[in-house]
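Input.
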Amino acid sequence: MRQFPRFDETNAPEAAREALAANKRMFGAVPEPLRRYAGSPLLLGTALSGLQAFETSKLAPLEREVLAMTMGRVNDCKFCLNFHRRMLTAQKAPAELVQALEAGQALTDARLEALRGFILALLEHHGDVPTDTWTKFREAGYSHEQALEVVTGVAVYTLTTFANRLTETSE
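Output.
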């Protein structure tokens, strides 16, 4: 056990306190990952600003959750899978979609599967997505802008899934 400390808005490093307080006001409590991220105000600020920026992407909320679940599965982040399962449930996503994402299986929705395939190809090929995957992504209606936003989401969720695993954040 690495036993990373858990902070709140009263005992965190000074530079992290306002962000924790703001999240407590927003959610009623400081989310567990943020309690651990606060040990590094740099990580906390980067994670929060990255997540906030990704929320402004042209990807629909369901598509952002497909990305988050795909990254949680690839990076074996149990907290992420549990959290984003709840987010998908709140969006009334079909149970079979959630189950397929958790299992790493192909999605029945062709557009969402093109997105999932694009994410996996980005990771596997370190950004050099094969032509056939790129073609499926574009034919599914995704733009060049959205492709770059997927890169942003992959970066943000790599940061948070790695931090969650390092700090042993679970529910």
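The mean pLDDT is 96.
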